[in-house]
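Late entry, written up from scratch paper. The run itself happened at the end of the previous shift, but nothing got recorded in the book at the time, so transcribing now.
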Amino acid sequence: MSGIVTVTLAAAIDLTYHVDRVAHGRVNRASSWSRELSGKGVNVSHAVAASARTTRAVVALSDDAAGFAEADWLAPVRVRGATRVNITFSEGDGVTTKVNAPSPALTADEADAVVRRTRDEVRAIGADWVVIAGTVPPSADGELSLGELIRTSRAEGARVAVDTSGPALDRVLADDIARVALLKPNTHELAEVAGRPLRTIGEVVDAARGLVWRGCETVYVSMGEDGALAVTADGTWWARATAPAVVNATGAGDASLAGFLVHAGPGSPNVPEALRGAASYGALSVSQRRTLLQRPDTAPDAELVVDPDAARPLRDPAV
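Output as recorded:
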């Protein structure tokens, strides 16, 4: 594998408080807290870099957050809107509550600058993946689309992975799905796309297979405690790793996507091995206090099943 470029259009400063239990309507005192630059693409690049792989994180970042852009793999694009602050309450029993601030709008010029910086970073590191991840902010000049990012990345010879949701994902599915090599919804996002509840492994497989039939090469579904699932035209695989502990679930999906890409291998991805890596990194992530993955070399091994039992009910169904 050569390089991985990630794109974060809506960065955030993640402010995490660790508390025994959140008492609503009262003053809560934290036992510890942390603050770090985050956003889905940033989280993915951090895990990739921690795995000693080459990465660049193209991130729309305001001047007030410039002090957080210290890692040499960060490629900030300066924008005018203030970088949002997201707050996480991590309780002693592993329950995580998040409050995400709204994303500031990007102008057309700022969006174009992100596309150009992405192209430049793909060329600079010889990237074979571009990961477009996270919230797509509103546009100050009209509707903001991921289409130009996807088409530019493909023109540079990179495979494109998309991890977003809502209207932005709907537009990708309508206009650019055949250009996308990897889609990474979670179970609930996939249910929203499918327009129906997902209660069993088989229902998740059927919904993912529908996206493959529409043109996407691989659909990887992160399912939390239900493991991880990957569907291609050639097969279906399920994987799960046991977390050493459940401390903080924030960022686990991003860590799992990094694990998928790190273990995918060069060229067309080795999907079974990529899925093992995804489940392994995700399990490690939930056992750590920070959003950004630490020490991926200590991630637990994952079991892999080919053609999992379709009747198996989900512990966390999307209803």
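The helical segments are 40-50, 108-125, 147-155, 166-175, 187-194, 201-213, 252-262, 271-286.
(Scratch paper discarded after transcription.)
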